[in-house]
Amino acid sequence: MKRQLYKPLGFLFLGLALAGIVLPVLPSTPFVLLAAWFFARSSEKWHQRLLASELFGPMIRNWEEQRCISQRSKAIAILSMLSAGGASIAFAMESTTLRAGTALLMAIGATVVLSLRTCPNCDRITKEA
């Protein structure tokens, strides 16, 4: 039963993570970690594919080994949300409601990313992997 539920959830969160790469209001880091967690419990094949990914593998290994993400990952997530989201708010949206909603989603995303533990040696692990 778990496999039947966890595998689709893994794909859902992987899809959100991929969307988070291009959408300024979605951080991809928490969704990647959730996808890895669900795949680790439902599909060894997909879990290994994520670990082998040049884009996501180092972050997942850091999380699985030390329950942390690198300072670099946090900085990239926050800066990309601020730059792309800020540009969207400033230049692409006329509605105050849309601007406020986007700012709220960015704040929630930033809070989630910043709440994840940062390990002092995560950057070293990422480079070695």
Summarize the structure.
The protein has 129 residues and is mainly alpha-helical. The chain has helices spanning 2-22, 28-40, 44-52, 57-66, 71-92, 96-115, 122-128.
How is the secondary structure organized here?
Layout lengths: L1 H21 L5 H13 L3 H9 L4 H10 L4 H22 L3 H20 L6 H7 L1
Helix pairs in contact: 1-2, 2-3, 3-4, 4-7, 5-6
**Radius of gyration from the alpha-carbon trace, in angstroms:** 16 Å
The chain-level mean pLDDT equals 86
What sequence of helices (H) and strands (E) makes up the elements? HHHHHHH
Enumerate the spans where pLDDT stays under 50 for 5 or more consecutive residues.
123-129
Structural class: mainly alpha
The total count of strands amounts to 0
- Characterize the overall form: globular
State the distance separating the first and last CA atoms. Answer: 34 Å
Largest sheet: none
Strand content: under 5%
Could you walk me through the main structural features you see in this protein, from its secondary elements to its overall organization?
The structure is a single chain. The chain is mostly helical and 129 residues long. The protein is 79% helix and 0% strand. It has seven helices and no strands. The C terminus is likely disordered.
